[in-house]
Amino acid sequence: MSEEIRYFNRYSGKMEKEEVYGLGFLRWTYGNPIGKMSLHGLVKRTLFSRWYGKRMDDPESREKVLPFIEQYRLNAAEFADPPESYKTFNEFFYRKLKPGARPIDPNPKAAVFPADGRHMGFQNISEAPGIFVKGALFTLAELFRNEALAAEYKNGSIVLSRLCPVDYHRYHFPISGKAGKTNLIEGPLYSVNPIALRQNIRILCENKRAWTRIESDVFGPVMMFEVGATCVGSFEYTYQPDSQVEKGAEKGYFRFGGSLTITLFKKGRIRLADDLVKHSSDHVELYARMGDTLGEAA
Predict the structure, then answer these.
(1) Are residues 271 and 215 both part of a single domain?
(2) Higher confidence at residue 201 or residue 38?
(3) Which of 8, 113, 160, 248 is most buried, judging by how many CB atoms fall within 10 Å of its CB?
(4) Nearest-CA neighbor of 181 among 132, 146, 214?
(5) Domain total in the chain
(6) Which domain does 60 fall in, by range?
(7) Distance (Å, whole) CA 54 – CA 63
């Protein structure tokens, strides 16, 4: 199994190697026969994530905060609270940032990335199958578990935003509009790291997930998914359903672990950013932060 994950950093203009948190565990569970047995018997189950989540909520877990910041060279200056103030690791993990730490593209025609992370975008979703491993398919019907909704977004545009444990883990609205309620789809909790997705892209259609429709005058109806992962058994929402939201407004946060969001636009409603499309066509993720443009209304 290939361990190296490389992505293109929009800010440095260079290819960079990802430092994978828990690499040994991922290698064992997805590359070792015994590990795969434990994956299907325990790791993917909600019970495991609840157990691990409780560990990260234990006051003793706060001892992991400072070493984590140092090891992954996080910019503590942008945290809303000083590192020493977090009472648990989870409290640090879903930390808030200072106002202005993530400027929102002011262009009314621009949609923005909903989260910090590594992103892939495809102008036509029919180009997306095989993102991480050639020949592996997933369909919108499986993603929604709803044929009618899937038909609405046929040949539309898709952006996948993968958050690593080292990232800021609050997710935000990519556009302004009226945000509906969240619709939960139960499922297991496989990892969404490329090491796992290379083995089975259908994880995106199997994992626990939730979707929200955002009605926009500029982009039409846009769908936003939150996808759970190993150790991320729940999504916490901080917005008011059926209310008007502004682009960049907080929608919610993930607890400890890696996770992923998916943003879907109807056909012909958006022109994705050139660098996002270029690198995605080469099967390379683009690193960008929440608030930066992912594309403009067509």
Answers:
(1) yes
(2) 201
(3) 113
(4) 214
(5) 2
(6) 17-93
(7) 15
